[in-house]
Amino acid sequence: MALPADLQSRLRVPVMAAPMFIVSSPALVVAQCCAGVIGSMPALNARPQAQLDEWIVGIKRDIADFEAANPGRRAAPYAINQIAHRTNDRLQADTESLVRHEVPIVIISLQANREIVDAVHSYGGLVFNDVISDRHARKSVDNGVDGLIAVAAGAGGHTGNLSPFALVAEIRRWWQGPLALSGAIANGAAVLAARAMGADLAYIGTPFIATPEAQATEAYKLAVVEATAADIVTTDYFSGVPANFLANSIRASGLDPARLVRQPDKVTNVSPDGDSHRTWRDIWGCGHGVGGIIDIVPAAERVARLVKEYAAAQHALSGD
How far apart are CA 52 and CA 48, in angstroms? Predict the structure, then answer.
C-alpha cells in the first residue's frame, strides 16, 4: 500500500467513506472511524458555517472518548470534504476551520486548490482530490495533493464515466502515491477487487445511506434498500455535470427521468448545493452498487460486514 503506515495500521478494512451532501453527519463520521474505516463529511453539511467548528470539536471528542474506553484500539482518522469552486462562498472560512482544528485528511472536490493544499500541509495534514480522468489527476498532483480518488462510472452523486479498470490503470502508470477508487463498491469482495486493480482504498458512500446515523430521511433509506442498479439515472440535468440519482425520487419531484433536458443558461453552479437543497434533499443521489444493500443497519455493522466479506473474498481466492 502507498498509504502512510500510521494510517494503514488504523484501518480494519481498506475503506474511506465518501462524504455525502446532507446525508453525512458527525455521528456517522464518528461511527465509521470507531468501526475502523476513514469517516468523512462535507464541510457544507454544517449550517451555519460556525457549526463546522462545533462539529469538528465534537468528532474529535467522541473519537477520543472511544479510544479512552477501549485501551489499545485506535480509531481511523476522519476527513472533511471541501468544494474548491469559485461559487462556494464559504471556502475561505471553512478552510480556516479545518486548519484551526488540524483536520487530519481534507478531501478536495472539483479542482485542486493550491492554497488549501498548502494550508493543510502546514500542520501535517493529508489532502486527497477526487478526479474523473487521467488529465484531471495529473493537474491535481501538480498542485501538490497527497492522494487521489479515482471516481469511476457507477459512483453515487457526481460521477465519472470511465471504467474503473481503465481509470486506475492509466493513473497507476505514473502515480505511486495513495489512490482510492469510487464506483459501485458496496461489499468486501468489491473492496478486494479495488485493491487488486491497484487502488489502496475503496471509496464507499451509498451503503452508508442505509444506516441510522445518516441524515437521510427514512424514505430515502428505504428507497436505497429497495433499489437495484436499474433504478439509477445518470444525468447532468440538475447541476451541469453527470450525477447518479434514484429514478423514483426524480418522479416524485414531478419530473420524467427519461425526459431530462438540461438548459445550460439555468445552470449556475456545479457545487453540491448550487442547484438548491431540493436536488439533494428530495432528488436522491445513489450509486450503481445499490442492489447489494438489503437492510438498514448501524454503520458499525455495515463496516463489520465489509471486514467479513473482505476476508472471505481473500480466502476464496487463496484456494485454501
Answer: 8
